[in-house]
Amino acid sequence: MDAMKTVDAHLADILRVVRPLDPVRLDLEDALGSVLAEDVASPVALPPFDNSAMDGYAVRAGDVAGASEDAPVVLPVTVDVAAGDTSHRVVEPGSVTRIMTGAPVPEGADAVVPVEWTDGGTVKVAIRRPPQAGNAIRRSGEDVRAGDVVLTAGTVIGPAQLGILAGVGRRAVLAHPRPRVVVLSTGTELVEPGTPLGHGQIWESNSYTLVAAVRQAGGEAFRRGAVGDDPGAFSATLDALLGEADAVITSGGISMGAYEPVKEALSALGTVRFEKVAMQPGMPQGFGVLGERRVPIFTLPGNPVSAYVSFVLYVKPALARMRGLPAGPPAMVTAICGSALRSPAGRRSFLRGVLTPAAPGGGPAGPTVSPVHGQGSHQLAALAGANALIMVPEDVTELPEGAPVEVIPL
Ligand SMILES: Nc1nc2c(c(=O)[nH]1)N[C@H]1C(S)=C(S)[C@@H](COP(=O)(O)OP(=O)(O)OC[C@H]3O[C@@H](n4cnc5c(N)ncnc54)[C@H](O)[C@@H]3O)O[C@H]1N2
Ligand code: MOO
């Protein structure tokens, strides 16, 4: 048997080719999931002005220092200050203003008395409890000082990051966009779910898995249904899609059969290599680039479990690189085998397993992992019942219950 390529060498080859996408200006509405390509500083302090944290009365604390339940201090209310009030307000000695949450604290006031500590009066108010100086006032700059960098390049933009970007007045940012990934399946036997199944046919599933996996990995995915086993039709479909894609993922049509459209169509180009990688599942792999824009293409094996495992090991790190994020092998945790394992010699295997976290409160045992029943690379249901891949090294053929193993949580 000819020597197979290692898993690590295949990932390294991919990461040598794949580049971060060029940063573009993205409106905030389109920026979710993109990765900042600039440091963002605030032009102003946040909050920009001292403001009230509660609905109540802006007071001079000294004026109401003697207030109590038995002897409330009664003061005139001069004006209402609502959130959004842009006029310059003053609290004169011996008076108060009503004030609402978020409204600017008037000059002279040094505390806010919550309405709950008063009789709620609008002309004059009886205050039953004395506030400390500074009570319920949110100071300018307490969150951000003018000029502070609030987000650095390389940050993934999620909901909270969009909030601070808008909060410092930004409408658009320079960011690595989410990679646009086209997902294409091949195989004459494949029919769309929701349509009747004839003898010899199966419902197409890989594109659903791979599209979802791309989205979870921060990409924008476009699902193309299955194309048949005709290399010409496959090439034509690919050409039509290429202009809009930052990457392409295919599944099926790359092994040793008589009808392998992906391999046939792409081998001729000379920019895509088909290789055997020493792993189980997922031995047949292909990777390369297409067209002048050198769009990366991942030709994954057709067996559904093989396609998904290949995505986790190779495509996901490549998408991280395209997004401008650190890219490398999947993160792993060490777990204890809950039952004995077997694995083929000479291949790194990725058994589908159920990872159970360590019992709360500790104890000596860490997380445990047990393989699911059904380790065939066509066994979709078993994959759906797993939450982890158990990695068994190339030179290990069996592991006893209780042995430590490395596990990739899914
Ligand atoms: N003589 C050999 N035969 C095979 C070898 C080999 O080395 N020598 N390798 C086997 C391994 S390992 C794998 S994995 C598969 C990979 O084959 P292909 O990538 O060419 O995939 P297909 O033959 O097109 O399909 C394999 C299998 O998966 C089903 N499939 C394909 N696409 C989908 C889809 N989108 N949704 C659901 N199921 C799909 C397909 O019906 C086949 O059953 O080759 C082995 N053979
Ligand atoms: O090695 Mo193939 O990818 O499992 O069935």
From TrEMBL:
Keyword Magnesium belongs to the record: yes
Enzyme class: transferase
GO molecular function per UniProt: metal ion binding; molybdopterin molybdotransferase activity
Residues forming coiled coils: none
Pathway linked to the protein: Cofactor biosynthesis; molybdopterin biosynthesis
Every MoaB/Mog domain range: 182-321
Substrates-to-products reaction catalysed: adenylyl-molybdopterin + molybdate = Mo-molybdopterin + AMP + H(+)
GO cellular component, one term: cytosol
Family listed: Belongs to the MoeA family.
Protein's name according to its UniProt entry: Molybdopterin molybdenumtransferase
Organism: Sphaerisporangium melleum
